[in-house]
Amino acid sequence: MKHRHIFVRPAKPDDAQMFFDWSRENPDNGFDPEVAKYPSTFVLCAYDQEGPVAFQPVQQCFMLDAFAARPGVTKLQTSSAMKELVQATVTQAHIKGVGEIYFLGTEAGTNAMAGNHIFEELPYRIFRCKTADLER
To answer: What is the spatial distance between Cα 7 and Cα 23, in angstroms, rounded to a whole number?
Structure first.
């Protein structure tokens, strides 16, 4: 059997039903149909000469990175600052059509606060690709 080259293009409106059907047929992939509805999400389609091979939704989320507080501030100041920064991030998410905000917790107290408020803890491992490291 000859290997056929796989190409990638943006998904077309006609692909939508196939994309949703295939996503439901793969229950272990963590598919969330709401992600496809976020204004900043786009869907890619891998295809060959016979048609679509796979779909990949790509959501543009916000990732809260390393929080840096002024040395010597109180826990109350820190938690108040975090609260305000998260609220500002939510506002920016609405403005930019971003559907999800992620927080990578590294400190037990902050993790507990995040989990007790608007963030939910997810059962996934996180993998990172720094595009600047792809070409050396």
So the answer is: 20
Which pLDDT belongs to residue 117?
A: 79
Domain carrying residue 48: 7-58
HSE of 48, CA atoms in CB hemisphere, 13 A: 8
Chain segment 1-58, per-residue pLDDT in tens:
677 899 999 999 999 999 999 999 987 888 898 998 999 999 999 999 999 999 999 9
| Assigned token pair, 67 | 């929080």
Number of domains in the chain: 2
> Residue 99 burial (CB < 10 Å; 0-12/13-18/19+)?
buried
30 membership: H or E segment, kind and range: none
* Mean pLDDT computed over 73-93: 94
Contact 67, 11 (CB under 8 A): no
Partners of 56 in the β-ladder? 44
Residues 41 and 54 in one domain: yes
